[in-house]
């Protein structure tokens, strides 16, 4: 039972990180307006940070626990390359969750006089952000056609009191909200904060493609049923070991301006009219830990990028069965740049992999295809392959006037985007000839610290 709690409680996960000396603890008081976000950005959302003292609030906050690939690999008991296969297995074989009667998230229940800004240290990140924003909130709604739970990370702008605006750009959320709005019905919603990396990555499964209950994907990934508890004021299930749950509903035909806001690509997004959430209850653990996700950081883009890698791998494998691994680097928002490793069996495999990658998602803008001897997670190794195995007139493909990402500013400016593929594979058979890499026997056993004092 204890192992189960550790695997589902963020605070116990933080204890493990602290024991491994992987948790940075900030004892200095930080201001939630600008300063807190600036500290997170200095570490790019990769290093877990626990903020002990936040100006104007007695609650601690955490950031960065979902921003490093190796952390997912460790939790899933696999390698960096193996994460994709673990995700594929969970999507193919979801596991039932478990509904429990009680849980730590219900240690404190607030139903009256709710002022969300006074309860939690909600940050303002950038100079021109319109308001403080909750950015790590995982929103859950129930699909009224199937009864399945749909979770997704949504940003929520604090409007004051018990009101938030919700950026509902997820197709499933949009469709259901608009359908209920036409009928004059409010949509029940809950916001979950204080979870582990497995819960985060499970929320990124594409509902349109796979049609799954994301709680069942979570259960499959962690190898045990996710423990869920019923909300107090809405008909939804939430994790029993979450730190915070905000309950409420989105009434029809009410909009508030949301934004501007510093978004994923490092630019400001303009203000738009978005639905409003009216909060009916807040549940939280005693001494709750507020969770923060800095926009444009590794933590912001990586979880979604891992699920995108799964889809990218599947799409390429349909064309190139010998694809070995795929990688969407965080520097490209885990969506604009793709690196693909293949075992080449025919001339033209590199070009075919490029076509498959660019066709897999409108967001993919640049693709580099390399041989299996190249470490796709090592930028220097990929650049070496480009430098030594590419002739631009033969190996670079440019496609003008393609559909692109709404988050990429040059596409927004022009309405279309150019896409590029680089075939950085050696000629067929070249890895055993002219393009064979030099090697040193015993290299992998050398520990450089053994040789110096």
TrEMBL record:
InterPro entries: UbiD, UbiD-like_C, UbiD-like_N, UbiD_Rift_dom
One Pfam family named in its UniProt record: UbiD_N
Residue ranges constituting the 3-octaprenyl-4-hydroxybenzoate carboxy-lyase-like C-terminal domain according to the UniProt record: 305-424
Domain 3-octaprenyl-4-hydroxybenzoate carboxy-lyase-like N-terminal: 14-90
Domain annotation 3-octaprenyl-4-hydroxybenzoate carboxy-lyase-like Rift-related: ranges: 100-295
Stated family: Belongs to the UbiD family.
Identification of the protein by name: UbiD family decarboxylase
Protein's organism: Lutispora saccharofermentans
